[in-house]
Design brief:
By secondary structure, this protein is of the alpha+beta class. The protein is 52% helix and 13% strand. The protein is built from six helices and seven strands. Helix 4 packs across helix 5. The two termini are 32 Å apart.
């Protein structure tokens, strides 16, 4: 886990520890029927229900409530700042070994292949999400910038060039896959032959 992830986890735990006693008192009031602290915590509870997409009118056991709250709470914690996985510094695409950090591409015999900076950037973005579809919009935004998010023909041209350079049979790609109408995907090693 990264430093940012540990920091988020620490903040979450501190906030949780600070809320244990007041929420415990509130829950005790709910169960004993006294209604104390309801005026203070009721708006907070309603907001939490809305955030966690829990139907406040539905009957729910305390186990369901705890499970729903913890699952949605953990999901919310990780949704705050999604961090893409760093791309593997060395990618193997067919017979080619691509070093994204050094920006060099060689085959098993040591012959070098020239890739443009944009082609390396495309591979880097795809490698960050290896095995998953990366939409046209995301690729365009991360490679060419936010002003180019509608220029899908850029992608088609560069992906065709990449396939002609890296794929053994560019007409039937095994590594740089098109997800029609959505985007592109870099296949994992165990997916391709």
């Amino acid at each position: 886990m990264t430093t940012n992830g540990w920091l988020q986890l620490a903040i979450y735990l501190v906030v949780l520890l600070l809320l244990v006693k007041p929420l415990g008192l509130y829950m005790a009031g709910v169960f004993d029927g006294s209604g104390r602290a309801t005026r203070v915590f009721a708006p907070i509870e309603r907001a939490l229900y809305r955030l966690c997409r829990i139907d406040a009118q539905a009957q729910m056991s305390w186990k369901q409530y705890a499970l729903a709250s913890s699952v949605h709470g953990c999901r919310w914690l990780y949704a705050i700042a999604p961090v893409p996985a760093p791309p593997a510094p060395l990618l193997t695409i067919g017979a080619w070994h691509v070093d994204l950090k050094a920006r060099s591409t060689r085959d098993g015999a040591g012959a070098e292949l020239h890739l443009t900076p944009i082609e390396y950037r495309l591979l880097e973005v795809l490698a960050q999400h290896i095995g998953f579809v990366v939409t046209h919009r995301v690729l365009l935004q991360q490679v060419w910038g936010p002003a180019s998010t509608e220029q899908t023909h850029y992608l088609r041209v560069y992906m065709k060039q990449l396939r002609s350079k890296l794929e053994p049979d560019p007409a039937r790609p095994h590594w740089l896959l098109t997800e029609t109408g959505v985007g592109y995907r870099l296949a994992q090693r165990d997916e391709a032959p």
